[in-house]
Amino acid sequence: MSVNPELQGRVFPPVAPYLVGREKVREFSRAVFATSPINHDPEAARAAGHTDVVAPPTFAVVVQEATLAQLLAEPDGGIDFTRVVHGDQRFSYTRPIVAGDELTATLAVTSIKSLGGHSMVTAESTIVDASGAHVVTAVSTLVVRGDE
Amino acid sequence: MIPAAPIRSVTDLTVGDVVAEASFALTRDSLVHYAGASGDFNPIHYRDDIAQSVGLSGVLAHGMLTMGLAVQPVVDWAGDPARVIDYQVRFTRPVFVDATDGATVTVVAKVGALDLEAGVARIDLTVTFNGSTVLGKAQARVNLA
C-alpha cells in the first residue's frame, strides 16, 4: 500500500479542545531541559507580561499529536505508520501558548510528494484559542518509506 | 499587559556572532521522562529489542526531544520563551542513547540573519552528537522588538 495522492488538500475536522495545564507545562519544560523561570513560575511569567507560565517553543507538538493520529488513521490514506519517519518540523507562533489556554487544532494535508520511492507528506495543524484567534501553526513533514 | 523590555537588541548583533553554547547529557531516563511528558510512547525510544527489529542499532532519542532541548540556549539568551516566534528543524541523523553511557548533544547558536526593521533575529543552531550534526536547517526566529 502506498500513500494516497488524493490526501493532498484534504482538511480534517477539528480535534477535541486541549486545555493547557500549568503542571503539564512544567512537566514538559523539565523534559526538554527548559530552565527559564517563565516556564515554571507563574509570578516570573506575570512579571514578564504573561497571564501564566509560558510553554516551551516545541510544546505545540503535544496539541498537534491528535491531528497526526487522525491522519495516520485515515482509512483511505495508505500511510503505514511503521514506515513513517519524522522528516522535519516547524512551529510558527502568533502568540505564545500559556497555561489556561484552550486550544483547538485542525489538520490540513498541504502536500504529497514522491522522492526516490518514498512519499513526503506535509501536514499543517492550525491551532487556535477559545476565541478562535490563531496561536500557532505546526507543520510536520513525514517521510513514508516505500516498499523495499 | 506590557511585555518586559527585551534584554537584547538586534542592533547589537552581527551575523555570525555566537550567542549561546550548551551541552546536554541525555540518559535513558531523559527519554522515559520525555515520553511521559509528550505522550510519544513509540517503543524505539525505550526498548533496544524493538529498535533493533526495525534496523536501528539501539534506542534513540525522540527527534522532538532533540528539537526541544536545542532551542533552550536561545530561550535563555533571549530571556523569555515567548520571544521565539518561529522554530524549524530537519531531522537528519538519530541520537543513539546508550543504556549506561547515555549521549551528549551539543548546541552552538549563531546569528544567521537580522531583520532590523522587524526587530527579529534568525538564530541558526548547530546540533551535534558523536561528531556529526543531527539537525539540519535548525533555525529559530527570535523577536527582540
UniProtKB/TrEMBL annotation, chain A:
<dbReference type="InterPro" id="IPR029069">
    <property type="entry name" value="HotDog_dom_sf"/>
</dbReference>
<feature type="domain" description="FAS1-like dehydratase">
    <location>
        <begin position="9"/>
        <end position="137"/>
    </location>
</feature>
<dbReference type="Pfam" id="PF13452">
    <property type="entry name" value="FAS1_DH_region"/>
</dbReference>
<comment type="similarity">
    <text>Belongs to the UPF0336 family.</text>
</comment>
<dbReference type="GO" id="GO:0006633">
    <property type="term" value="P:fatty acid biosynthetic process"/>
</dbReference>
<dbReference type="InterPro" id="IPR016709">
    <property type="entry name" value="HadA-like"/>
</dbReference>
<dbReference type="InterPro" id="IPR050965">
    <property type="entry name" value="UPF0336/Enoyl-CoA_hydratase"/>
</dbReference>
<dbReference type="GO" id="GO:0019171">
    <property type="term" value="F:(3R)-hydroxyacyl-[acyl-carrier-protein] dehydratase activity"/>
</dbReference>
<dbReference type="InterPro" id="IPR039569">
    <property type="entry name" value="FAS1-like_DH_region"/>
</dbReference>
<protein>
    <recommendedName>
        <fullName>UPF0336 protein E3O21_16315</fullName>
    </recommendedName>
</protein>
From TrEMBL, chain B:
<feature type="domain" description="MaoC-like">
    <location>
        <begin position="18"/>
        <end position="111"/>
    </location>
</feature>
<comment type="similarity">
    <text>Belongs to the enoyl-CoA hydratase/isomerase family.</text>
</comment>
<dbReference type="InterPro" id="IPR002539">
    <property type="entry name" value="MaoC-like_dom"/>
</dbReference>
<dbReference type="Pfam" id="PF01575">
    <property type="entry name" value="MaoC_dehydratas"/>
</dbReference>
<dbReference type="InterPro" id="IPR029069">
    <property type="entry name" value="HotDog_dom_sf"/>
</dbReference>
<protein>
    <submittedName>
        <fullName>Acyl dehydratase</fullName>
    </submittedName>
</protein>
